[in-house]
Amino acid sequence: MINGRTQLVGLIGWPVEHSLSPAMHNAAFDALEMNWRYVALPVRRDDLDAAVHGVAALGFRGCNVTVPHKTAAGSRVARSSEEARAAGAVNTLVIDRQGSRWNVTGHNTDCGGFLDGLVQAGVDPRGRRTVIVGAGGAARAATVALLRAGASHITLLARDPERAERTANAVSRNSERITAGVLSERGLVRTVRRCSLLVNATPVGMWPDDDASVWPDGVRFPNRTVVYDLVYAPRRTKLLRQAAEAGAKGLGGLDMLVGQGGRSFELWTGCAPPLDVMRTACEAAWGET
Ligand code: NAP
Questions:
Q1: 208 C-alpha vs ligand 1 centroid, how far in Å?
Q2: What is the pTM of this model?
């Protein structure tokens, strides 16, 4: 029941109507009998400042931040966690109110959520040469997480090579462990054949474009390369199907979604997240849409 004591958190992004986060967090609040609610808040690119001030003024306890605001949100907060600074991207705001004043702290739970997905699948990133396709917020989090977890080298490929370069520099200036380049079908195939992990950090293959993949049709996927598709809807993307057909191991984005959500939940509430409940809620919500 929503009443005068209900605590609010939400999601700032554009678009947000297809997000699974409201279902995931509200199921967690219900399971723990907490008087909290999570709402989706559609916020256009130019309205980020007003939205951050607005949620703080309205007494929200925090927010998730998604496309297109993850990078910009870092400059709107008084303090950032070490991971958020390293990634140059924020996906979680924690709002502390003391009397008439409030402070907003930025966090990046995508980094930990990304590693949760690898751990759940029993994939150790140590020593792996990795290709990441995409150069946005998810790619930044994945790059930070992989560098810290001991990946030997990361090639960032994006259709805008300058964005790939900016992402590489933002995450690790002058590191010999990162190379940035332009995304092309031939370049991707050549690079993936030299790597043992491919991460798709683009929306390619996401519903409703389920028939799209970053991997070209008619080219056999190298079966020793693990594929980690951060897209979580559909569960089995075309890229994961291509990997499976070649006998390669594939991981979808659901474990990361639940992992990052659980970490945000704990930052806001101080309570251990009911991860099984959150996962089931995502699966059920996806089945309904
Ligand atoms: P973002 O900041 O908007 O970045 C998207 C990246 O994908 C950009 O580099 C963009 O290139 C590239 N891209 C978009 N469309 C493309 C296409 N058709 N071909 C090649 N590249 C394309 O988004 P994000 O936050 O990083 O999210 C990326 C994906 O990861 C989304 O599908 C999101 O749902 C998923 N994700 C999943 C989780 C999870 O918990 N599983 C968490 C975060 C994100 P341009 O710069 O050229 O547009």
A1: 15
A2: 0.96
Tokens of 2: 């929503």
Which residue among the candidates 61, 69, 70, 166 is catalytic per the annotation? 70
Does 15 sit behind a cis peptide bond, omega within 30 degrees of 0 on the bond before it?
Answer: yes
Tens digits of residue pLDDT in 98-128: 888 999 999 999 999 999 999 999 999 999 9
Q: Is 160 in the pocket of ligand 1 (CB under 6 A)?
A: yes
Alpha carbons 263 and 110: distance in angstroms, whole number:
9
Q: Flag whether pLDDT at 289 surpasses 60.
A: no
Among 213, 245, 211, residue whose Cα is nearest residue 229? 213
Q: Which two tokens stand for residue 19?
A: 């997000």
- Residue 45's φ and ψ, nearest 5 degrees, are -50, -45
The alpha carbon of 238 is separated from its chain's Cα centroid by a whole number of angstroms, namely: 19
Residue 70 known to be catalytic: yes
